Amino acid sequence: MNPQEIVSFEPATGAILWRGAIGDVDTEVEIARGAWAEWASRPLTVRIETMRRFGNVMLSRASEFADRIARETGKPLWEARTEVEAVIAKVDISVAAYNERTAQRRLDGAMGVRNAVRHKPHGVVAVLGPYNFPAHLPNGHIVPALIAGNAVVFKPSEKTPATAELLVECYRAAGVPEGAVRLLIGGPAEGKALAAHDGIDGLYFTGSAPTGLALSRLYAERIDRILALELGGNNPIVLWNPTDIHAAAVVIAQSAFLSAGQRCTAARRLIVEDGKQDAVLAELGKLVDRMIVGGPHDEPQPFMGPVIDNHAADSLQESFLGLMMKGGRPFRRLDRPVDDRPFLTPAIIDVTDVSDRPDVELFGPILQVIRVASFEDALIEANNTRYGLSASLIGGAPALYDRFWANIRAGVVNWNRPTNGAPSNAPFGGVGLSGNHRPSAYYAADYCAYPVVSSETEQARASIGIGLRDPSSGS
Ligand SMILES: NC(=O)c1ccc[n+]([C@@H]2O[C@H](COP(=O)([O-])OP(=O)(O)OC[C@H]3O[C@@H](n4cnc5c(N)ncnc54)[C@H](O)[C@@H]3O)[C@@H](O)[C@H]2O)c1
Ligand SMILES: O=CCC[C@H](NC(=O)CCC(=O)O)C(=O)O
């Protein structure tokens, strides 16, 4: 393979989907720097209008877009369509968020002085994207960044450049100037070089915690730059006294296995009362046995597709084996139905007896079951992670949920609802290793602009009335 080139393969078939040259970081940043002032000086209404046109362009190309996402990520077409819908919906949500969180505000001032709070864009911001939502998540940074008046250099995951190319084409078709949104094709090396580049003013990163930590270290002395980190999770579901076992199993299965478990909010750990696990596991088992794993365009449509590539599948299989070797008892194994392709079946493993459970994000369809003696222990176990993205309580009375809500450490806390599927019209982010307290989605507006306070009058007025000598006193 040409080292100067990125090649994107369809996970389901192994076919080459796209190939293209690795971009030049200096060139992309320089072009964006040259363009941002003009973009920033366009009236807000014009920038908003441009983004609304982008929504319409997306709508008119929705089928083509969903097909691209499905091919490149392997996610089923029905799910790729929901990603396109999320991209479109982001425009109105970001406009509302800009107006609510960063619009200008008049303050009362004394003696006719006008005080105002307004927001300015940072300048040129870099967006580094993940592969699991190759359009929706980068777009969740790019749309609010452009509305606020920033120029963007977008480096997508090296695994999903084809989707990124189409996304950038749609911004341009809507009238975003070529210089205001740049596409940088590349892998981790280009991501690193872009993050370290002197010509950027901010970095919005969505990806894994190890990469987020590396970026955080890189930025340790860059107090001049804004860094927003949207990272992974090791998310718990606590099941306690459920009234409807089937419904509970459905919520658990959706949480763990939607997108083949490749969601930052996917449930990784199911915490259940010891002795009461059999009924829910039996129901869960029946459900996962019915789940179709298949290619994105298969009919009938599968519940889930493959994971992103063979490397990811190999490493998940190794982790599953590792848990078994440490004493984990598989309830449903992680099978690989097609030898040389990354399809995996939904897996469930009881790891209660594994004493040194690794606190890592297994980014695939693996659910670990942990049995505990009391609700108190369930809370301790749920919080027994350095991450803190999402958490759900299934079952329990309102008072129990109140306890759960008060004690759980996570940025998304749900009751009888899946850990995933977070709404875009709310803040989205986590604590611990899941992020750096700069939530995205509705609160992305906050990191796309900074507040400026101004005290203003048409004319300067003399106003020192105290502490001055009388000019006629001569001394
Ligand atoms: N919190 C969220 O909003 C959210 C959303 C989606 C995915 N994720 C997380 O993303 C991960 C899956 O995505 P991924 O595997 O593409 O993540 P990743 O960290 O491997 O890569 C993300 C991006 O960073 C780049 N990159 C990799 N190493 C880099 C480095 N050292 N310096 C700079 N850039 C670098 C990659 O090329 C890619 O563009 C999972 O951990 C998932 O939980 C988080
Ligand atoms: O993989 C991580 C994101 C998963 C997704 N979250 C969102 O879409 C958040 C909303 C937004 O960013 O607009 C989920 O929770 O399933």
TrEMBL record:
SUPFAM superfamilies: ALDH-like (SSF53720). NCBIfam families: arg_catab_astD, PRK09457.1. It comes from Sphingomonas colocasiae. The gene is astD. It holds the Pfam family Aldedh. This is Succinylglutamate-semialdehyde dehydrogenase. Its EC number is 1.2.1.71. The keyword Oxidoreductase applies. The lineage of its organism: Bacteria, Pseudomonadati, Pseudomonadota, Alphaproteobacteria, Sphingomonadales. It is an enzyme of class 1 (oxidoreductase). Belongs to the aldehyde dehydrogenase family. Keywords: Arginine metabolism, NAD, Oxidoreductase. InterPro entries: Ald_DH/histidinol_DH, Ald_DH_C, Ald_DH_CS_CYS, Ald_DH_CS_GLU, Ald_DH_N, Aldehyde_DH_dom, SuccinylGlu_semiald_DH_AstD. Signal peptide: none annotated. PANTHER family: ALDEHYDE DEHYDROGENASE-RELATED. GO terms for molecular function: succinylglutamate-semialdehyde dehydrogenase activity.
